[in-house]
Write a structure and sequence with these properties.
Largest sheet: 5 strands, parallel
Radius of gyration: 56 Å
CATH architecture of the domain at 292-456: 3-Layer(aba) Sandwich
Organism: Orbilia oligospora
CATH topology of the domain at 292-456: Rossmann fold
Number of helices: 24
Shape: elongated
CATH superfamily of the domain at 292-456: P-loop containing nucleotide triphosphate hydrolases
InterPro entries: AAA+_ATPase, AAA_lid_3, ATPase_AAA_core, P-loop_NTPase, Peptidase_M41, Peptidase_M41-like, Yme1-like_N
Protein name: AAA+ ATPase domain-containing protein
Strand content: 5-15%
Distance between the termini: 133 Å
Strand order of the largest sheet: 2-3-4-1-5
Structural class: mainly alpha
Number of strands: 7
Transmembrane segments: 247-266
Helix content: 40-55%
GO cellular component, one term: mitochondrial inner membrane
Length: 641
Amino acid sequence: MCTVRPSSSLLPQLVPSRSTILLNTLRPSSKILNFRPPRGTQRFRSLTYAQSNWQQIHPASKRFWRPDPTNYKHFAQCPISTGAHPRFQTRALSSLRPMRSFLEHTERTANSNPMNAAAQLEFYNALYKANMPDIIVERYQTGQYATNSRAEELYIKSLEKIGQIERAKMIADRKAEKAETAEGDTKSALSAEEVRAIGQAIAARSKGGASSITAKNLHGRYGDRDNPLFVVVDETIGGTVFKWAKFLLTSAVMIYFVLVVMTVFIEATGVLKRVGGNPPNEAQGSQQTARFTDVHGCEEAKEELQELVEFLKDPAKFSALGGKLPKGVLLVGPPGTGKTLLARAVAGESGVPFFFMSGSEFDEVYVGVGAKRVRELFAAARAKAPSIVFIDELDAIGGKRNERDAAYVKQTLNQLLVDLDGFAPNSGVIFLAATNFPQLLDKALTRPGRFDRTVNVPLPDVRGRIEILKHYVKSIKASTDVDLQIIARGTPGFSGAELENLINQAAVRASKLRASQVRMDDLEWAKDKILMGAERRSAVISQKEKEMTAYHEGGHALVAMFTEGAIPLYKATIMPRGMALGITFQLPEMDQVSMSKKEYLARIDVCMGGKVAEELIYGPDNVTSGASNVGIRFPFLNPRI
């Protein structure tokens, strides 16, 4: 029994006329009526006859349906497994099954390995033996499969077999011409790409196209030794960003390591020191012009330091009887009392080099720099002995050590301890240091043998403030009405630096007012500004509040005038300054070191005078918060007062 296998694509040039099958000679069967196209042809639905159309075929039809021959090119990839080739459509399955199975196997292998030339050659050989040259030509010219010289030969034979003899001859001539021009070179034949290009160009010309390929055009088309092929790779945005990020990261890491190596090398060898001279933080001996006459308000400290000056001028005077001068002197006192000026005055009086460094200049980011600078400082001082070494803010490097601290934290202090204890008695080097917090220093640093003497530099008293004011008034044009004693009495607790600032602000105000001299009003204004803050002339205050403030300050002034034991009244004002709407100034005769019970009660009375005045004028229920300063100034009093 002969069974007909329907086809989804038939080419007129491949289907012989004698293979026409008459449907009226076949008996209808359920296989035909229930036919389902092969799975491989479902991708070409436009070329596959639908099942419903197969069922409508009448047995009296004369021929099978034939598709447009131009659509056959879509079956060049899978012509066997899809049953598209006419050779397997009109024969009995019993005689063609072995050959069809072999072709399907080789076709699947070739399609699954498009870049394997051996698999493609095997499929081409099977097609050639099965007398299917047209499929070889179509498949080869697609350019999607690998090829070699044997596949090219089969392609040329297939062209001859399907009647395209001229086309095959032209490709063979091109190969021969190429082999002659490349004689002696490793490339003795046309490449597979060139052969495929020639075939496509000939096919285009045979169909009326304008494409043509010559030997000149093919020579070097794909690059050779004389005419290299330049390739430009078009990268994606992500690839470009990744490439630049990698480049920048690598460059940053390399630059960082280079800078670290260069910094370590410069620090170790001191190249910049030799080229550019000494850096600013390196100790340099200098001659000082300050004298003891420039220092005021600390007479006792000057007397103690006079011994150092005499030792530096005449060392034999002290060593004759076996006495030794202290190796180190520690200056202790509040900020601005003249500790640094005292050290400069000692160097200026003795006329020896003065080496000065701040405690914050030793340590830096690199480990060991602080200890190195300590060694350099004392080595330079020994080289220019007799000399004076002064370190300001010693607590920056001489703080108390802790067992939990790392070793590199204590290197600078340890080196300082070694240099201080390593001096010879007659080395002629005296070490001075200053600090505001002596309680923070390490005990090993302040012990006798390193710092044999501690000199206290306190705040100046009234006499010392008068001397300091006289010293700084010499640098300005002061009026004859200036009374420095009143300014000194009204500035208890002022240091020398604050008094210098007072004189400077008074001179600036006088210059701003275009005055020819600095008057007493300018000094009073500067003192009040330092004590209470600047005047708030733009403050918006109602007339009622101004009147209430005047009564309040008048109460303070009246109690101060008529209370026994109170500080004498100086002045009262309702000009707002700082946080206060008004203020009453009292001027003591001298600095008060201690106070009696009578004086404490008098001070309390003066503070309560403002509250009492408000009660008398406005009543107990209208007393303002101006009396709250009593609790602030005397927190130990009973809150009910």
